[in-house]
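hi!! sorry for the late reply, been swamped w classes. u asked for the two structures so here they r. pasted raw, havent cleaned anything up. first the sequence of the first protein and right below it the tokens
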Amino acid sequence: MKQTVPSLSASCLFISLLLAITLSCISPAQSIGQDVLNDICSKSKDSSFCLKSLNSDPQTATTDLLGLAGISIKLAKTTVDATYNFVKSQVGLVTDPTLKKQYTQCVESYDDANDKVDYANERLKAGDYGGVGVATSACLDDVSDCEKPPPVAVNVAAASTISLSEQNKESYELCQIALIISNRLSGKN
């Protein structure tokens, strides 16, 4: 009786077919949908600001949750940097010692917040989503230390104080969005 041995080309074809089927079942990271974005932003203090901020980055439409975490950290970094620079510029404009002390404290708080956002980015790259949450939560604490803008002094324009209040709110919101996304990555919500 003659036994049939499959040819090498038939075996290669079978393995290739099996590999193609397996790879088609493994989908690449799915982009988040609007419903996920809405859910994330519903957990923030200002959902419309959250949606507007995240949608300001064109990559949001095609990214996955991990990419969205990176976008939120990048947005937080940009705003925290801008607020730090703004507050630092105000320290030199005030002569009232109490006011100068308050602005100096804000500079220190935002310097710390900058470090926390940088650390959150490092943790994200390392896949440590819990670490991202800890860092972004600490960023919220640092920003909150400067939550109430110093009173307006005679030599500081009211617009500067209003601007600090707005920038501080934006920094807080963006750190909070990064925290919400990191919690979702960690499976906490």
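now the second protein. again sequence first, tokens right under
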Amino acid sequence: MTRFGDFDVLCKDTPSYTWCNLFYRQILHKAPTVLTNASLPTSSAGLGVNPTCSIPRMGQENSLGNIANIVKESCSRSDRAADIPLLILPHSPPAARHNRFVPSVHYMPRKKLIAVSLQAPSSDKAAPPLVVLTAIHAGVVATLFWSLLANALVATQVVEDGTPSSLIPFYAIAIVFFGVTTYISLDVALSITSAFGPSSPPQALHSIPLFVLTSIWPGATVIIYFGIMTYIVLAVLNEVRPMWFYILSAALFVLSQLAYFLLSKVICKGSNQKVDGSFVATILESAAVGVLYLAWKSITEESWDEDAYYPS
């Protein structure tokens, strides 16, 4: 019986599910008999705990697996070069109809860049350094989605963006999300304490806090963000065109998750364990981030066209 917070089904049926790294060590040490041949620490074992299909490593103990996805992630890093102007602007530009947006928009591509950089090495068996990288990866992902939500909240003009009243809470909460998620991930993997440590029973791969922060929190954030931006674009700005970018970005994100969780095993078996759904998901996620930038640009471009912008 699968409970809320169990990762066993995900680690079994979703090839290249990164968070499985955080459970492999405790299974290996506390319940090694539950491991199947697909999970035994051999030179070619792929990611996952008792996976039904996985991408094998290249044949040596410390070699990488899922090379196709790593190559695509590397390409995603170069794709983010188009976001350099966003990263160097000290303040967000005035938006159409006198609406301004939080500087977290500028940092989101950078956090996405860090996230995919960490995903590449953490898509392998759970050696101690890779466990730490996986934990940091989880912290970055949770913080990335806080940045997304913060952007929507400040876009409502509850507080003015670029001011201490918006930046101090933004950075403070970001640090909390990163610290808490990284610590919980390390505790799950290394059993530092009994609070978030060993799963009970071990084969359930159970951790409610980790499940909430890595699965529930990102999904909830996307839904809230989309709802807030729909209100701002349609009701406040009274625009239609930007909304299509937001809809397309949301659709690409949903498709990426469907490809990752529903088609991974099918793609893995169909490709004879060469690629899986994470490869398709990475492409779609990168496209979703790019379209989200176009949505932001479409809202602010009127001001760029009409007024010169001089950073202070």
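hope this helps!! also noticed smth abt the second:
The chain has one domain: 8-228.
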